Amino acid sequence: MKHKILYYSTNRNLTNVPGIVPFKERVTFREALLQGQAPDEGLFMPDGIPRIPREDITALNGKSYIETAMLIAGAFLNSEIDPGVLRGIIEDAYSFTVPLQQVTDRKYVMRLDQGPTASFKDFAARMMARLMSHFRDQEKILHVLVATSGDTGSAVGEAFKGVEGIDVNILYPRDEVSERQKKQLDTIGGNVSALSIDGKFDDCQNLVKQAFSDPSLDFLSFTSANSINFGRILPQMIYYFYAYAQLGRAGEEIVISVPSGNFGNALGCEYAKRMGLPVKKLIMPTNENDEFPRFMKEGIYEKLSPSAACISNAMNVGHPSNLARFFELYNGTVDRTGTVHQYPDIDAMRETIFSVSVSDEETRECIKNTYEKYGVVLEPHGAVGWRGLEIYLEQHGDFPLCVSLETAHPAKFSDEVVELLGITPTLPESMRGIDERKGESAELPSDYKVFKEYLQDTLKTGVRST
Ligand SMILES: *Cc1c(COP(=O)(O)O)cnc(C)c1O
Fold first, then answer.
1. Residue 25, in any domain of the structure
2. Quick one: which of 68, 79, 85, 190 is 20 to 30 A from 392 by CA?
3. Using one digit for the tens of pLDDT, what is the confidence trace for 319-342?
4. CA 7 from chain center: how many Å?
5. Which residues span the domain enclosing 187?
């Protein structure tokens, strides 16, 4: 693709909707990355999708993850970043393995659980952090404020640890995180600080939002690292190409199953298909939060509120934030609140996507079965993915090449695994030693005035001398 890809907002056409002032401009990747979200609260979308020639994909067979990342990220970024710089970013971000574990025949589990927080979110967060460091205003420190209810915070915090020119403050609700999560967040250290807020997750989010829109803090440069940043979607296209390049045979198609919550991961696969990856079907299994499979079946979208609390807790989502991008790709529009302004072409969606809801009971059964039958240990999210694949194959007949994603390490959900399988999964190398780490959070009330004073007193403006 020769023209430079620019980014537009999913809300750009919502002219008569109260509370929304449509943003009609297009911005560069740099701006989309640093702004995170469009000014009209829509999500940024690329105005063109690069095509990867089939022979370029095949040529990646036997090559490293780094080479795959260079090709796919480069296709979006080559007009904005020097290839040598991009290589440095990618090599620094992806210092861990991406195992393709055979389950049976040519059906595999791709383990995205080997990063520093043993979650697939490491893939996106680590690359985004380094891209932000490259693209930031070099004269100033960039401040990342992120509200978290647990896992995302540690993936984001670890991803930014030691990254040049960026300071991170993570706000978490004091009584809503586990002891282990608190330890993980409080002890990252260096340029990453934890703020323990006397409130709920929503309070943390509100404090962050108020700081972003407070003109008296304009002297600080802020950004968010939330999951809707396009900088987090781009890295999630890469591993689909990697898996296919290693496993695919001349011209054949692949079925891919992606356990889904906010749909950012599955969106990476949707883009991969549009870039030329021969995806026969994208399977998007959810847990008991079944608003999307229900929509795919019945054609009516109704978000779930509140969401159901399932054991695959990172997927307890009643209105997936990236649904707006899926709708957009199929000529529909849905906003942040879940209101559908235009329904997408559901027949076209059904061509590509198969979605099904997997109950907690089925999830547990799947963890047991895959271990007993194949010796493969899955945790609840990966089991939702695998079970979704099985259901698809049961309904549509067997298919030779299939890959299902494992999105977290079983040791992170050891209670469930120990109870079901009677074995204790060992923590990956990257996560050992956390219990010995030292560090403390700052404790703050859920009060904007106090939070603002804290920011004014503690945040630095210039570039650090080290
Ligand atoms: C975030 C998360 C998911 C869901 O991914 P989405 O991109 O939000 O669909 C699945 N599994 C784990 C372990 C996660 O942390």
1. no
2. 68
3. 999 999 999 999 999 998 999 999
4. 19
5. 120-229+433-466
